[in-house]
Amino acid sequence: MHIEGATAACINCHRRSGLGMTEGRRAIPPIAGRYLFHPRAANADELDLPFVEGMKADRDPYDEATLARAIRTGVGADGQPLSYLMPHFQLDDVQMASLISYLRSLSPGPVPGVTPSVLHFATIITPDADPVKRDAMLEVLTKFFDDKNRYTRAESPRLHSSRRMMFKVNRHWELHVWQLAGAPQTWEAQLRDKLATQPVFAAISGLGGRTWEPVQHFCEAEGLPCLFPNVDLPVDRQSDFDSLYLSKGVLLEAELIAHDLQASKAGTSIHRVVQIYRAKDIGKDAAAALRTALHDEAMPVVEETLGAGASGHELNALLAKSQPNDILVLWLRKADIAALGHPPPRVARVYLSGRMAGLEQAPLPAEWRGLTRMAYPFNLPDRRRVQVDYPLGWFRMRQIPVVAEQVQADTYLVCAIVSDAINHMVDTFVRDYLVERIEELLEHRIITGYYPRLALAPQQRFASKGGYIVRFRDSNGTILTPEGDWTVP
Q1: Where are the alpha helices (DSSP H) in 80-122?
Q2: So what's the pLDDT on residue 266?
Q3: Could you tell me if residue 230 is left (phi over 0), alpha (psi between -120 and 50 degrees) or otherwise beta?
Q4: Which of 262, 276, 372, 472 could lock 350 by a disulfide, CB 3.0 to 4.6 Å apart?
Q5: DSSP code per residue over 451-484
């Protein structure tokens, strides 16, 4: 079979780091130059190389000629055939020289933020982040780091045996809080200064407000893993590598609403889809995502902007302009939801952003509840109880008050994900490899917090990909009833 282009790319199996991966029961070996050209050793301990699962000790080292032969014909350094999974590449001498030079450049060297005894991490907070959520997140991070460091031990002695001890290296974790200030266009310069002053291995958790774009742009430019920040409006850019999110936030909510509208439009008379959002808030971006998702539907979509300082009276005056059989989509915060007056007459349906309105705690007036469906990009409260009990118990034991449960549970989850990945990396501290290990391990997690399942694959940046459309069961309580099954739009 002949394949070419991206389908045949080495990165598909050996990954961007060149350190390989595990596919089922098969370990894909590293192809970074340091591993390919290293002299034969009696066992893995004598290799004196950072440990990765597919590395081989008792193998003849490659030179440029035998490596070129392996790539072109599938014959290894020892003259034996390589795995049938390894394709053969038709490369001329110039292309082969470029490829081998690139493989040499992948060899792990000194990594910023990593010392023999310390792993440095940052958490990034934008100036418009909610201060209550900021303090709650930082307390979880601080206590988790304290727990990690309480049990830190020195590096284990090297074992002179046929097996290397897993989890050999245990370094102190150091957290650096990068609080940004000023306008978004100044954030990248601030982050460059902070990274130059204190190099870090990765940025974990973090908290954003209206925009995260400058932070993501900086992390991608620096090759700095930015792992699962708490943001309602993530940056959806498939070409990026270093930025991972637990959820697509309000962009996922827009997709859920679009899916529900498309599924329920048959036999209904919809006049318009009217989206309402505050100026200078993330609802504008969510509304744009919904408008794009409905582009091919015969549904006129209009948008109404509420001024940043407009009152509840002005909001209700705007709603009063609604026409019969309109669909209302409210991209509004809790204060606006609480200020809603009587629903406009003959409105067909109302959709609400769960993340913006406060999920099941949304202060939606009783007379709106029968009309309203909520986009809910999490597991339902009764179904996630067991998954959330563990972090809640951890909070109780460490006397952490629960003031922003979803953010605090997500922050704990992120710390646990990173800790698991670091453990499996053993002593191979390479930034790209950290991202790859998270991708590989995430779907095996048992404790997933607010999410029923988490999974990442190469080129996927959002770990939870679905949600529900829900209603309130009654006019006063917080019990939710799903309109259907968990949906991945």
Answers
A1: 93-105
A2: 55
A3: beta
A4: 372
A5: -S-----TT--BS---BEEEEESSSS---EEESS
> What is d(CA 411, CA 391) in angstroms, rounded to the nearest whole number?
10
Positions of the chain with pLDDT under 50:
156-167
DSSP for residue 245:
B
Torsion of CA 339, 344, 348, 354, to 10 degrees: -10
Rg of the chain on CA atoms, in Å = 26
Q: What is residue 378's three-state secondary structure?
A: coil
Q: Model-level pTM?
A: 0.91
Nearest Cα to Cα of residue 231 among 336, 128, 379:
128
How far apart are the C-alpha atoms of 404 and 450, rounded to whole Å?
A: 13
**Which pLDDT value is given to residue 307?**
93
Count of residues making up the chain? 489
204 burial via Cβ count (<10 Å: 0-12, 13-18, 19+):
buried
116: tokens are 């023999």
Interval 385-437: pLDDT, tens: 999 999 999 999 999 999 999 999 999 999 999 999 999 888 899 999 999 99
Cα distance between residue 467 and residue 204, in whole Å: 24
- Integer angstrom CA distances of residue 269 from 149, 318, 325: 61, 22, 7
Is residue 1 packed enough to be buried (19+ CB in 10 Å), middle (13-18) or exposed (0-12)?
exposed
Q: Are 424 and 377 in contact (CB under 8 A)?
A: no
Q: End-to-end CA distance of the chain, in Å?
A: 34
Q: Which amino acid is at 388?
A: V
pLDDT recorded at residue 474: 84
| Both structure tokens of 88 | 């053969």
d(CA 126, CA 183): 10
With tokens 């008379």, the residue in question is: 269
Contacts of 144-152 spanning 24+ positions with Cβ under 8 A: 144/412, 144/415, 145/173, 145/174, 145/175, 147/398, 148/173, 148/419, 149/173
What is the SS3 assignment for 147?
helix
